[in-house]
Design goal:
Low-confidence stretches of chain B: none
Largest sheet of chain B: 8 strands, mixed
Largest sheet of chain A: 8 strands, mixed
Oligomer: heterodimer
Number of strands of chain A: 12
CATH superfamily of the largest domain in chain A: P-loop containing nucleotide triphosphate hydrolases
CATH architecture of chain B: 3-Layer(aba) Sandwich
Number of helices of chain B: 13
Strand content of chain A: 15-25%
Largest interface: A-B, 52 and 50 residues
Strand content of chain B: 15-25%
Order of helices and strands of chain B: EEEHEEHEHHHHHEHEHEEHHHEEH
Strand order of the largest sheet of chain A: 6-7-8-3-9-10-12-11
Mean pLDDT of chain B: 87
CATH topology of the largest domain in chain A: Rossmann fold
Radius of gyration of chain B: 21 Å
Structural class of chain B: alpha/beta
Chain lengths: 385, 343
């Protein structure tokens, strides 16, 4: 998107408490149309990830020889299409943040490939790498530690322009920073203030302004609202939704809060120990999940409605997530799965389309068909210890 | 330090364990006086779960610390009010007696279990300390009690794990150890300050289930401090919503969620994305909470409130009054809020 387009868009005050009618119209059309996956037929993905892995060596002893690997990301594949949001959820330690860092090349993958707009970017170096960074940017989780306390807001948001001088001519940078501040709903007059003068929500807006400063095409949001209070969280989520529409951004939205992810995402991937357990459109995952892990995760989310107290079926998972240095054999969820069968310990199920009662979507459970919500009666009968 | 097994002989009065009246706390800082708590009233009965809900800086943790008598003073000072436990005012109680109330009668679980446990002692030793100090038990008896407690909070292989150090446990297990320490002496009141905030949802569900079971076993009163409206809806009987050091609404959980009586509660409930329904744009409360050193005149919420009128800005803080049977709110426009048009 060119700069002139951007300036045309900025200056609109943020509708903090808007009714979101236009958002509703857009969404309604999507829901009544073909499934989201079908919409992408013929559209080139902007980002294609294939079999991505990241192993961190574990060393021990006096000579620090390698004794094993922490498999933080262990074979992840997905496509991201222009203008869509892919949500990635999982418990702490499942590798979702490492995946985010791999996507923006803050970490080098151990194997696998990342293709951006048809070009393999996995092993880019030097100036080609720098050029690429303009297109894929990241917003970090903690707005308190990700902003340099000794720099002014203007310096923080303007720093990308120093590294990529071609984006905005030096004379116009100040004006552009003010425009960005306005775009994320901050007062452009505050350009000379320091991060400590802002609240958590405002700081996250600064982080977002920095993320979109170079007009990226993909924005990786790593837990962007986890550190914020509920009322402020809603403001930032609304801001991200608005920016996506205005700037035609594709988001990879990483979070552990399933409700926020559902709200913002078109498609969702559920991660466990470095792998996707299930992936599909937002309604496929939330309404017709076929993987026991997704179902357990979903049932554990408290619903803010006391009426639902007795109706809810809580699946309490036993124990903790196993160590990613030594993941269980077969399906890595089988040690905590309340529906595990002997076969689960031996066979590692692939992430392939499996029946969910309404067309099917990707799931990595051997017994997905059996456990889909659509075949509730069968699951009751077939349930084994 | 009492090295005997005597427990202060206190019994609930009129079925009330704890009665807090008109509590005021302020922090005297270099930047001015921050009024953290400005008149908080509530009571707690046995087996009751009261949730105190609020965002960061609303004063919910300070309320808990004031009850426990563990405020850092200075800068914090209790400037008014009473905290009566079984009829005795804890605020004027000598520290010598207060030590016997803490742990024995009222105990507390903190948010961050890792920094609340001592990293250089095994967890079993730390739990056993409760019995050694408060009950004067010898080491081996105390250790035995500690193992039993670890089993009670469902830590697998408790006997073997009692010798482990805090860093050898996962976040959920550490929180269980904190709970074990808190319930060691069978307190009548348990204050849980954001007990699950740092945990994953699956572990959060385990911990909340555990707390509920322990409460059913012992009949203790539970004060649950949290910012998560989901957790509250699941476990609380009563909810008090705090904003800028005041209770703005207090009622039973069902009525509060069905139809909030205070604009702030309305905003909070509307601003959460729901898992069971895909929304459009989220409703957000505009603006930011004010600084506690410079509270707005009138109602503290008026700059962010869509119901605000001139009255809210010029008249004093709205009184916290009974607006319906057993339902309290501090707003000049309660009628209007209750009968508002639903989004």
């Amino acid at each position: 998107m060119s700069e002139s387009e951007l300036s045309g868009l900025s200056g609109q005050p943020e509708t903090v408490s808007g009714t979101g009618e236009d958002a509703g119209a857009a969404d309604g059309a999507a829901a009544s149309g073909p499934t989201r996956a079908a919409r992408h037929v013929g559209v080139e993905p902007i980002l294609s990830v294939r079999d991505l892995t990241k192993y961190y060596p574990l060393s021990s002893g006096v000579i620090r020889h390698t004794v094993g690997h922490v498999k933080a990301v262990d074979g992840i594949s997905f496509d991201l299409f222009p203008g869509e949001t892919l949500g990635i959820v999982g418990e702490s330690g499942c590798g979702k943040s490492t995946l985010g860092r791999l996507l923006v090349s803050l970490e080098r993958p151990t194997s696998g490939s990342i293709v951006f707009e048809g070009r393999d970017i996995t092993d880019l170096k030097g100036s080609a790498m720098r050029r690429l960074r303009r297109d894929i940017q990241i917003v970090f989780q903690d707005p308190y530690t990700s902003l340099d306390p000794r720099k002014t807001v203007g310096d923080i948001i303007g720093e990308p322009f120093k590294i990529h001088p071609a984006v905005v001519p030096s004379g116009k940078r100040q004006a552009r920073v003010k425009e960005l501040l306005d775009l994320v709903g901050l007062n452009p007059e505050h350009i000379n203030r320091y991060p400590h003068e802002f609240s958590g929500g405002q700081r996250q807006r600064i982080g977002i302004a920095r993320g979109i400063a170079l007009n990226p095409k993909v924005l990786v949001c790593d837990e962007p609202v986890s550190a914020l209070d509920v009322s402020v969280q809603a403001q930032v989520v609304n801001l991200l939704v608005r920016l996506q529409k205005e700037l035609d951004l594709a988001y990879v939205f990483i979070a552990h809060d399933l409700s926020v992810v559902r709200h913002i995402s078109d498609r969702v991937g559920v991660m466990y120990l470095g792998k996707f357990m299930e992936m599909g459109d937002e309604d496929q995952i939330y309404d017709r999940s076929t993987h026991p892990y997704t179902q357990a995760l979903m049932s554990a989310v408290p619903v803010p409605d006391p009426q639902a107290r007795d109706k809810r079926e809580l699946i309490v998972l036993q124990g903790d997530v196993p160590s990613p240095a030594n993941p269980p054999s077969g399906c890595r969820f089988h040690t905590r799965c309340w529906r595990a069968q002997p076969a689960c310990a031996e066979q590692d199920p692939e992430l392939v389309p499996r029946e969910d009662g309404a067309g099917g979507h990707d799931s990595a459970c051997l017994f997905a068909e059996l456990f889909s919500k659509a075949s509730e009666e069968i699951t009751e009968a077939d349930q084994i210890g | 330090m009492p090295r005997k097994s005597t427990r202060l002989d206190l019994a609930p009065i009129d079925g009330k364990l704890l009665e807090v009246t008109d509590l005021h706390v302020e922090f005297r800082t270099r930047d001015g006086v921050a009024k953290a708590i400005n008149g908080v009233n509530f009571s707690l009965s046995p087996s009751e779960t009261l949730a105190i809900l609020g965002e960061s800086g609303s004063g919910k943790s300070v309320t808990a610390q004031a009850i426990m008598g563990i405020l850092d003073s200075p800068p914090a000072f209790v400037t008014g009010g009473q905290v009566k436990y079984c009829g005795v005012d804890l605020l004027t109680m000598p520290e010598k007696d207060m030590r016997r109330v803490r742990g024995d009668h009222i105990s507390m679980i903190f948010q961050d279990a890792l920094s609340s446990l001592n990293p250089v002692f095994p967890v079993g030793w730390q739990i056993a300390e409760m019995f050694r100090i408060h009950r004067g038990m010898n080491r081996s008896d105390a250790q035995e009690q500690a193992v039993r407690l670890m089993e009670r909070v469902r830590i697998p292989a408790a006997r073997e794990r009692a010798g482990n150090y805090p860093h050898q446990f996962s976040g959920g297990m550490r929180q269980r150890i904190m709970i074990a320490m808190a319930i060691a002496l069978d307190p009548r009141v348990l204050i849980a300050d954001e007990p699950t905030t740092a945990l994953d949802v699956t572990v959060q569900a385990q911990i909340m289930t555990l707390l509920k079971e322990l409460q059913e076993e012992s009949g203790m009163g539970l004060i649950l401090i949290t910012h998560d409206l989901g957790v509250v809806a699941d476990v609380a009987d009563d909810i008090a919503v705090m904003y800028c050091g005041r209770f703005v609404e207090h009622c039973d959980v069902h009525r509060l969620y069905a139809n909030p009586a205070h604009p702030y509660t309305v905003g909070l409930i509307d601003s959460i994305p729901r898992l069971d329904q895909k929304g459009e744009q989220l409703f957000a409360i505009g603006g930011l909470p004010p600084s506690l050193t410079h509270l707005p005149t009138g109602c503290s919420f008026n700059p962010r409130c869509r119901f605000a009128t001139e009255e809210c800005r010029v008249a004093g803080a709205p009184p916290f009054i009974e607006v319906e049977d057993g339902r309290f709110a501090a707003c000049y426009h309660t009628e209007e809020v209750l009968n508002r048009e639903r989004v």
